[in-house]
């Protein structure tokens, strides 16, 4: 049974006239008559009674008409669903991100994506870069926001975002009066850093900045979450380093200052698995590209305080 046969029957049943049904379907009247006849032959029942004056439905025809309409509606619905899926408008996407990106690009991307693709189920995970890399390799995670560099053998980098590194200071610190802090002036301070086993690229970047300034930092405390870092800095446990976007987090007793070093940057990469990219993933990546194209993320203004 073909949809075109059903479509012709429904048109004739609703118009009660083969000529008008043909006009409605933009086909020849003879073609409509042939399609309906083939449908009746396939079903083995007469759906219409015909004479020179009129066309009418038989009792089986009346019963079949209701089902035929439902069949056409379901077919149209299925076709539209398939088209929407091909455009990435329906489906499911699993996205991972590192915590600090919630102060930078991630909220804007998620907001823009949700507005345009409200029917896509979005599953979000805050994971370390290493955890995301593993989940991407396993095939569970589809897109990740991770710290660079990236394992390019397994993953494809779609976008990168750079931002300055700032020092997180207690507001009463002697260097808080400066707009820009030379890294070497922090040599005598105790440090609070992200654990290396959690985010090795961030840890190594911060250690490298210190060593380039001529000292090895004295790490007295570790903290993976930036709000805990801020709390510990406010309590006088030590100073820290973080991406500049973290300065959006207001915390009493804490200030953020730029570092005077051209190497004081961190990079976030948007990654996916290598291979075929499903439409829902491609649509998400396109939104990231659009947000990135419209972004102008300046360095932290001098004197940015959180308290």
From TrEMBL:
One Gene Ontology term, aspect cellular component: protein-DNA complex
InterPro entries assigned: LysR_HTH_N (IPR000847), LysR_subst-bd (IPR005119), WH-like_DNA-bd_sf (IPR036388), WH_DNA-bd_sf (IPR036390)
UniProt domain HTH lysR-type: residue ranges: 1-58
PROSITE patterns attached to this UniProt entry: HTH_LYSR
Keywords in alphabetical order: DNA-binding, Transcription, Transcription regulation
GO molecular function: DNA binding; DNA-binding transcription factor activity
Protein family: Belongs to the LysR transcriptional regulatory family.
Name this polypeptide is given: Transcriptional regulator, LysR family
């Amino acid at each position: 049974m073909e949809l075109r046969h059903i479509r012709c029957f429904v048109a004739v049943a609703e118009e009660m006239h083969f000529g008008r049904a043909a006009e409605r379907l933009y086909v020849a009247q003879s073609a409509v008559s042939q399609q309906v006849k083939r449908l009746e032959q396939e079903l083995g029942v007469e759906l219409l009674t015909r004479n020179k004056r009129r066309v009418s439905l038989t009792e089986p025809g009346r019963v079949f008409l209701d089902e035929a309409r439902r069949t056409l509606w379901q077919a149209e619905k299925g076709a539209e669903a398939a088209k929407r899926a091909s455009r990435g408008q329906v489906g499911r996407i699993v996205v991972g991100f590192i915590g600090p990106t919630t102060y930078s690009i991630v909220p804007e991307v998620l907001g823009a994506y949700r507005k345009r693709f409200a029917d896509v189920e979005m599953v979000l995970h805050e994971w370390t870069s290493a955890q995301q890399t593993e989940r991407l390799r396993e095939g569970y995670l589809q897109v990740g926001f991770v710290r660079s560099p990236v394992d390019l053998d397994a993953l494809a980098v779609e976008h990168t975002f750079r931002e300055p590194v700032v020092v997180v200071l207690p507001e009463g610190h002697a260097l808080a009066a400066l707009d820009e802090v030379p890294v070497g002036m922090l040599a005598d301070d105790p440090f609070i850093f992200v654990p290396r086993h959690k985010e090795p690229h961030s840890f190594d970047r911060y250690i490298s900045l210190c060593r380039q300034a001529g000292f090895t930092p004295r790490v007295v405390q570790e903290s993976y979450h930036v709000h805990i870092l801020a709390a510990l800095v406010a309590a006088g446990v030590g100073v820290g380093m973080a991406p500049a976007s973290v300065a959006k987090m207001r915390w009493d007793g804490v200030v953020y200052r730029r570092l005077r070093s051209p190497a004081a940057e961190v990079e976030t990469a948007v990654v996916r698995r290598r291979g075929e990219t499903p439409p829902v993933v491609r649509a998400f990546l396109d939104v990231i590209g659009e947000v990135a194209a419209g972004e102008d993320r300046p360095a932290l203004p001098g004197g940015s305080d959180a308290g």
